[in-house]
Design goal:
The complex is a heterodimer of chains A (about 400) and B (about 400). In chain A, about 5% of the residues lie in helices and about 50% in strands. With about 400 residues, chain A is mainly β. Chain A has one domain: Porin, CATH 2.40.160.10. In chain A, the strands form two sheets. Chain A has a 16-stranded antiparallel beta barrel with strand order 3-5-6-7-8-9-10-11-12-15-16-17-18-19-20-21. Chain A has a two-stranded antiparallel sheet with strand order 13-14. With about 400 residues, chain B is an alpha+beta fold. In chain B, the strands form five sheets. In chain B, strands 3-2-5 form a three-stranded antiparallel sheet, with no helix packed on it. In chain B, strands 1-4 form a two-stranded antiparallel sheet. In chain B, strands 6-7 form a two-stranded antiparallel ribbon. The relative contact order of chain B is 0.16. The chains are: A mainly beta (about 400), B alpha+beta (about 400).
Chain lengths: ~400, ~400
Amino acid sequence: MRKILILTLCSLAMNAGAQIDPTLLKRKQQDTTGMLMNMDAVYNRPFLSVAKMPVSLGGYLEANWQHLGTDGVTEGHQFQMRRTTLFIASGLEHRLKFLSEIEFEDGTKEINIEFAALDMEIHPLLNLRGGIVMNPIGAFNQNHDGPRWEFIDRPTSATQMLPATWSNVGFGMYGKQYKKDWAFAWEAYLTNGFDDRIINNADGRTLLPASKLNPNRFEESFNGVPMVTAKTAVRNRRIGEVGLSYMGGVYNKFQEDGFTIDQKRYVHVYAIDANTTIPRTQTALTAEWAFVRVDVPATYSQQYGSAQQGGFIDIVQPVYKRPLFGFDKSVVNIACRLEYLDWNKGTFAQTGGNIADEFISIVPAISWRPGSQTVFRLNYRYNMQTDLLGNPPARTAGFQAGFSSYF
Amino acid sequence: MKKYIFIFVGLCVTIALSCRKLQPAAPADNEVLDGMVDGLSADQKMSFLRGDRAFNNEIFTRETGLGPLFVAASCGACHAGDGKGHPFTTLTRFGQTDSTGNKFMALGAPQLQDRALPGHQPEQVPAGATFSKFLPPANTGMGFLEAVPDATLMAMADPDDADGDGISGVVNWVELKEYVQPVEGSILRGGKCTGRFGKKAGAHDLFQQTAGAYNQDMGITSVYEPRDVYTGQNIAPEVSEQTILDVVFYLRTLKAPLQRNAADADVMRGKELFLNAGCGKCHTPELTTGNSPIAPLAKVKIYPYTDMLLHDMGPGLDDGYTEGTATTAEWRTPALWGLGLSKNSQGGKYFLLHDGRAHSIADAILLHGGEATKSRNNFEALTETDKALMLVFLESL
């Protein structure tokens, strides 16, 4: 027994030595053709492979400081470990590959499997995918890695109106076709979907991300009806990319033990996303806009809206592309994010007046990228949030600084 | 290289020094209704904060007891920023027409739960029942009003109009809930206590008002109000006793609204016109509190512009519904403090009078009738300039 233990420890020690030998670590080449699309984000990551092992590893890390205040009240200096994410990918057979993404948010407050799927290529235009998949709604949900963005907070519309990162168990297909400077892609999945938390939650508003609190959602569907997610996108090497996506299904439990207890109530989400880089100035523009429609019973509270819309646009301008502090590929950017979100689009039945519950945000930023996989960010955030009635908004503002880096 | 290091260090120092300055400042005390009274102990401040969170942040769901029938999912939904409510959460009361009591209790009276969780149907006003719509009131300064002695109310009451000014002013005598203890110095009549909270002064104190609101407005049971409004059965408490006590403490210790520009000549002239028109006979400008277990509330002068008595407001405001011993045309004089800030909790528009039917202060004055007819006529007789000055004064409250 002792010999086995010693041999095991020796073996582990040798492996540990191998793992820290940088000559054995190989960084996977990333695609720089300019034809990658948002749907490719999950595999277009800087994986590391060890020697000839068939497994690639990767991940990223985000940490920051912030000092925000709302109408004269501040929580002071906050140091935050937003997330640590680990990727593991492997090529099992020719045209058969596996990838998983495990995320630790706010330390270990939330641990999620964001992606764990097996992909099989039948033809470039027809690939099969199954497992825990990221529903392709908008662009941010699939392309959410922190080091790719110049802003510390993720877009509010993408994470609070849309539920990024939103993953579900299911199966689907995707494909991609290139022709000269053009690329066309499509995706379609059937997965588990939302539940009635979206209109029954302690946030007091229609909130798609509330379904993420369902601990059983990777095990069973809330109502047995699959949710459909579909996206199509087109990219031109010189112009940029545009995507149109839809996600929808039944969100309520309409049957229990064979008895009908309610009518089927649907949620529909429509999104459009686009990104481009202006060649002359190298200004990068990324935008996403989404519409949410929820069948809320008329006898329920209008506090839970039946329509929402919102989105963001990021403008990133490189201003200094020269070696800095010894980093040859250093780039300094100035950037700005504009966000708008109408949590409850409609009018009060009692007065005919507008239901407010609106969010506006502007985030000017400076970022420094010593290399393509690491970003240091300094943001100033200014938000205004009105309540349901449209009373004077709560104003939040302050500085945030931090980094995000692949490893 | 050195240049960039200097820039980097300079940026860090600038941010460190300016991070507070570039954040939104707190609004002035007299521009908002929320905030605690001065002089609370550290322990009392913590109780206030617990109550604040329960009142403004706790939103009930099916899992935490909401409904299944309800009007609102949280206290804050009806009292945004602790101010007056909006027609979105108007309460409908029905079933009682005189002092003999409510004949529709078995049919869900006194309050209509006009919303329901999915899968349930909200209530309807039963056939034959009269009803009235009540706009949620502002919460501020209510601890001070609670601390005004009954003797003061009795001294202001003039049920037989002995002074012949056309204004009576009567106390609403209400039955106490078993969990409510009469406040110190209470005067009882036939086993009933004075009512001073609610549109009809139907609640004796903030404890009764709070436990009742959890139950009737949100369908939340407590040890004090264990009856489920849906089944009519007593069920396990859905909110803790401590939470109710914290919310009551919060409501008792919300500061009194502060007047703005009180020394402004137009405001002072407007106040003079207000008093000369006789408005102050019901909207009593100044009261003094009595004893209170909360030291900052005891024996202080307050300026609420109410006598907390019932007045007959005429047929125009008679909805045919009442509570306690009030007649259907009688309404408790609402406090006017905080009136000018009402718009900030009502979505930028005024919704005044008991059901929000008045969309400006002038409209509200012109809809006064009954005992207030003479004062309303006095207002109408003012020049446009003087009317405007009176409104400037009222907006300053």
